[in-house]
Every structure is written in structure tokens, then in C-alpha cells.
Write a structure and sequence with these properties.
This protein is mainly β and 220 residues long. It has one domain: Jelly Rolls (Sandwich), CATH 2.60.120. 12% of the residues lie in helices and 32% in strands. The protein contains two helices and 15 strands. It has helices at residues 37-50, 101-113, and strands spanning 4-5, 12-13, 19-23, 26-29, 67-71, 75-79, 82-86, 123-129, 135-138, 150-156, 159-163, 173-177, 182-185, 194-196, 211-217. Strands 2-3-4-13-10-15-8-5 form an eight-stranded antiparallel sheet, with helices on one face. Strands 1-12-11-14-9 form a five-stranded mixed sheet, with no helix packed on it. Strands 6-7 form a two-stranded antiparallel sheet. A hairpin with a 2-residue loop joins strand 3 and strand 4. The N and C termini lie far apart (33 Å). The mean pLDDT is 94. It binds N-[(3-hydroxypyridin-2-yl)carbonyl]glycine and fe (iii) ion. Fe (iii) ion binds at residues 138, 140, 194.
């Protein structure tokens, strides 16, 4: 996969420290959720106790290497019938666990910081990566309304996030996401292709030998 390293000079940089524009509408907020991370991590434990992580099957029949679950009114699911949001966990038949209040507060604050005031997510997709897990280039386009941004919070091991463009084979930036980083993504970049390179080995003091990514969406 071709790519360009994210070095400061490549980016349109804002005045504020820790804030880098990836494209019009997409902002990387370095360390924005670092103080919230322990509380978010507690919430992740509660969510996965109620709705265990699982490897979904793509419509093409492949088992995803990322393990996923959800909280909030809607949850993202994939199976042979396609990708969609559902109110109930298909594994248990129960509604997805409620979104912990701290989750929505962090997502709302990050969105506002990025220029998207009033973000009210109804879905939080929890993605768990262990070493060698990757997420191939994709667009997030199963939400009903693309006016709202997506807010992505990284916990645990670092990962290289690939940030492309409108077309699948557009050049990609490589964004080194760390524990506590947030990416807010909307407007003209809302449908840009993106993915995650295979996770490297490591041990994070809070999260262990894994990376957990939370993506908040206004899905329905
Ligand atoms: C991840 N994130 O970082 C995967 N999608 O683990 C995504 O696929 C993603 O970070 C839409 C917007 C932001 C993201
Ligand atoms: Fe995505």
C-alpha cells in the first residue's frame, strides 16, 4: 500500500497545539481524551461484559480480524446480508448496552472542539485490535445522515491510521494514533477512505496488549 508519512510540514497546521488538520473537515486532536481514558476504559469493560466482542462476517463471507461490539441505541453489524445498524445485539437478542454518559460527553466535547457543535451520537462502535490485526481501507457510509461527523477515540497500543481521499486508490496519509488521541471527521471528508495498518506488538500500561478504538456516530 502506498503512503506518505505525516510530518508536520505536510499538514495544514492550526495555531492550537496538539491539533492537526488531516483534510478539510477532518481534525486530529492529539491527547484530547488522555484524562478521560481511565473512565472510558472502565466503560469499555462494562460494555463488553454485556455485549461481548465478536468477529463479524463481511457480506463477502470473510471473518473480520478486528473484534467489535457496540453501545448506544444503535449498533453497527455485518453479516452475509450486508452492513447496517441494528437496535438489538444479534448474538443475544437484547438491546445494545446503553452508552456510558462519560462516552457521549467526551465525543460531544471533541466534536465541538473540531467545529461540530451539538453532536449527539446514538451509536458507539467498539473495535478491538490485537497485534497483527488490521482494518482495510473503507468508507463509513451506513449512517442515515452524513451531516454529522464521526468522532474516533484511540485507547491502548499505538496504530498507524491510513487516511486517504474520495477514491479508494487516492494517496494515503499515515497518522500515528496514540492512546488518548481523537480524530473528528466530517464535512467534506465525511466519506473519505481510511483504514488501520497491522498492529505492532506491545504492552500498554492501562489497556494491555491491544488497541481499542471507539467511533461515535449519529447513525439513525
Ligand atoms: C480505527 N477507525 O481507528 C478505525 N472510521 O480503529 C475508523 O474506521 C474510523 O477512526 C471513521 C471515522 C474515524 C475512524
Ligand atoms: Fe471507519
Amino acid at each position: 500500500m502506498s503512503g506518505t508519512s505525516v510530518v508536520t510540514a505536510d499538514l495544514f497546521e492550526d495555531q492550537r497545539a496538539g491539533r492537526e488538520a488531516l483534510a478539510p473537515g477532518a481534525v486530529w486532536l492529539r491527547g484530547h481524551a488522555i484524562d478521560d481514558a481511565p473512565g472510558l476504559w472502565d466503560g469499555v469493560q462494562q460494555v463488553i461484559a454485556a455485549a461481548p466482542l465478536r468477529h463479524l462476517i463481511t457480506p463477502g463471507g470473510q471473518r473480520m480480524s478486528v473484534a467489535m461490539t457496540n453501545c448506544g441505541r444503535l449498533g453497527w453489524v455485518s453479516d452475509r446480508r450486508g452492513y447496517r445498524y441494528e437496535t438489538h445485539d444479534p448474538e443475544s437478542g437484547h438491546p445494545w448496552p446503553a452508552m456510558p454518559p462519560a462516552f457521549a460527553a467526551v465525543a460531544r466535547r471533541a466534536a465541538e472542539e473540531a467545529g461540530y457543535a451539538g453532536f449527539a451520537p446514538d451509536a458507539c462502535l467498539v473495535n478491538r485490535y490485537v497485534p497483527r490485526t488490521r482494518l482495510s481501507l473503507h468508507q463509513d457510509r451506513d449512517e442515515r445522515d452524513y451531516a454529522a461527523p464521526i468522532v474516533s477515540v484511540s485507547l491502548g497500543l499505538p496504530a498507524t491510521f491510513l487516511f486517504g481521499g474520495r477514491a479508494r486508490n487516492d494517496k494515503t496519509l499515515r497518522v500515528p494514533l496514540q492512546h488518548g488521541d481523537v480524530v473528528v471527521w466530517g464535512g467534506p471528508a465525511r466519506l473519505y477512505f481510511h483504514g488501520v495498518l497491522p498492529l505492532a506488538d506491545g504492552l500498554h500500561p492501562l489497556v494491555g496488549a491491544q488497541r481499542v478504538n471507539l467511533t461515535f456516530r449519529a447513525a439513525g
